[in-house]
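Re-run requested by the PI after the first attempt was lost when the workstation crashed. Everything re-entered from the original request form. Ligand of interest: zinc ion.
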Amino acid sequence: MKIYIENIRFWKHISYAMEVMCRCIHLHDIDFMKAEEYLPNDCAVYYGRNIPQFFKGIFIKEGGFFGDSYLRREGMPRLPLKRYKDIPILFMESSYEKPDIIEKDYYTELNFDLIQSAFFIVTGCEEIINRDGTFDIHSRYLIENRILYKENFLNKPIINVYAYMLQQCLIYRGMIEAEKRPPAAYAHISHDVDWPYARKSELEKELIKNTGVEVKRKADIGFDIIFETELKYDIHSSWFFKSGGSNLGYDRQYDMQDCVVKQLIRRLVQKGDEVGWHYSYNAAFDPIQFRREYHYFTESIESDTAYGRNHYLRYMIPETWRTYSDFGILYDSTLGSAQHEGFIYGICTPFQLFDAVRGENLNVWEIPLTVMDGTVCMKTYRGMNPKEVMETVDQLVQEVRKYGGVFSLLWHNTSFQAAEWREWENTYYELMKFLSDSLVCDVGKRIIEAYQ
Ligand SMILES: [Zn+2]
């Protein structure tokens, strides 16, 4: 399928956003063309300001973001957003009253700009524009600032919704065939290993106090619980280990090459799971720290392929993403929010990170995080009860299934033994049964391959 682009200055941005959306509808055979090459009656997608003569296909009217106000405060979408059938639209040409899809004899016109809308959300433009004073103590962009939060649209993957709209138009115009089967949908279940050891019993603490002798450390009980449950439900998952850390307050120090950890890693590789890297608290902001940990991680697993997630879900767009790219990180799965579950970057399909400042595809895959255990279960964040957690996950999984995307769940190995977690053990079992019944539960690497 040919896609014609008028705005040459933003060619990379436009083709990137289009690729992201086409991947959402499993459309891979696309060619980008300059608008002036358009030949009358050629059935195609055309993105620009002026409909060419004798046009056939889908015309998408370009909004105002890809121009002089790009990445400037005055370029931000105006709230409340206009909506097309309840779906928020971030950008559209200002002369139109409301977003609409208009069917003409030979073409369909979308008078709103779903390309700029998708681009803005998936590349984190609002975080780049709002650099001052809108982050929490861990330098994380606050959920209250986010447009999708303000528009109450975190429970639906808005970019997949846009892509679906485009798909319906393409099918109507006979430019693609309707999908015969529902596409495969996945669950990416992952475990950040902040701390791999069992808590010391009162007896052990007493012994250490009295004799000064350290007792031999054992693996945390969470590993056994997760291993057994995942074996029972035939789940393969990703484990992200820390390979360093320089923050005394937020990084607990352990050694990936310690025998207990090595034994754990052997066991999970045998199970068919994936060993990834949990980059430390400061690594997101300090490329030298990132390098140090990267080397220790790759040395420990004897492989150059690294993928993983930032501790505390920390990152700064686009600097942290550039660091991932510099080290050839295969995929990252940090993009989510500790404060809120859902589709924070508006998408449930893996995508490649794009540096909106330099206009470069960074060739690092992202599997965005949908739900973290603490976010939904702990009082400090959403504080749901078990029934609410199951209902929320069910609703998000329905969306993921609809679009053939990925539901990404983070459940820590340490979320079992601590007093505040004991009441959640049954919910964990229920969740695993539900996910294995509803989705293909696989490791990140294979999930990425499925979307490439
Ligand atoms: Zn962590």
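Saved to the shared folder this time. Residues 192, 194, 278, 311 surround zinc ion (CB under 6 Å).
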